[in-house]
Amino acid sequence: MKVIEQELNALKKSISEMWALVHQQIYNAGEAMLTGDKELAYKVISRERRVNAFELKIDSDCEDIIALYAPVAIDLRFVLAMYKINTNLERLGDFAESIARFASNMPEGEPIDPDLIKNTRVEDILKELLQMIVLTQEAFDKEDSEVASRIFLIDNRIDELNHAATPIIAKYIEENPKRALIGLYMAGVIRKMERFGDHCTNIAEELIFYLDAKVMKHVGRTSVDDQE
Questions:
Q1: Within 10 A of 35 (CB to CB), how many other CB atoms are there?
Q2: What are 132-160's pLDDT values in tens digits?
Q3: Nearest CA to 122 among 92, 149, 99?
Q4: Would you tell me which of 12, 81, 147, 159 could form a disulfide with 139, CB atoms 3.0–4.6 Å apart?
Q5: 3-state SS assignment for residue 64
Q6: Crossing angle of helices 73-104/180-227, nearest 10°?
Q7: CA 228 to CA 226: how far, in whole Å?
Q8: Which residues are within 8 A (CB) of 73 and not within 5 positions of it... i.e. 6 or more apart?
Q9: How many CB atoms are located within 10 Å of the residue 153 CB?
Q10: Whole-angstrom Cα distance, residue 52 to residue 92?
């Protein structure tokens, strides 16, 4: 195996490990918010440093591969895609941390109103977001652009839920002025969730950029082989 292939495989492994970490962060942050588990929230906040460390390492690895091996064609596309995916994963990690901080800052004895959670469909949004993470990683592991393209439909659903939540929260604040701060917090969280969906869409686009070019390359090679 060529040295560059070893480096590319190592890069792919690092990205996969970061993906798994970010997925766990998002899941834990959501649980902390819905249950009021401050200990779990603090765990998410403390593990954000690991996400940042991964980002720095992967950025450095991408830069080293380009500088030392001057990859071309599909290898260059792969490195560029991983570089951009890495940035989006780090931002998803930031999102998880912000949700955890929201959970940790909730006043003791004042959990989020269950009716507000139900009416804004926050749990449904979280499920959709986790599904986006699962699908993008599946597309990455299986090198399947069709799986990646399913992300766009989920993002549309999240956009719809985000828009629908705004008047619901406004009405909640009007009817519960003493809990206005919680309503505002929830509005901020849902907006962050919508941005989360955008970052997953960015990841899907980068995967399609890389994978479709790879497929086209192999199709071309097959046709040449057939001619021989």
A1: 13
A2: 999 999 999 999 999 999 999 999 999 99
A3: 99
A4: 147
A5: helix
A6: 160
A7: 5
A8: 217
A9: 8
A10: 11
If one counts every other C-beta atom within 10 angstroms of the C-beta of residue 94, the result is 19
CB 61 within 8 A of CB 14: yes
Cα–Cα distance for residue pair 31/147, rounded to 1 Å: 27
State the CB neighbour count (10 A cutoff) for residue 46.
11
Closest CA to 126 of 140, 139, 112: 112
Q: Give the whole-angstrom CA distance, residue 98 versus residue 196.
A: 12
Q: Is the dihedral of CA 189, 146, 141, 212 positive or negative?
A: negative
What is the signed CA dihedral for 182, 187, 192, 197, rounded to 10 degrees?
130
- Once rounded to an integer, what is the mean pLDDT over residues 47-54? 96
* Torsion on CA atoms 116, 120, 121, 122, rounded to nearest 10: -80
Residue 32 carries which side chain, given as an amino acid letter? A
Q: Which residue has the tokens 């080293």?
A: 64
What pLDDT was estimated at residue 221?
42
Model confidence, pTM: 0.88
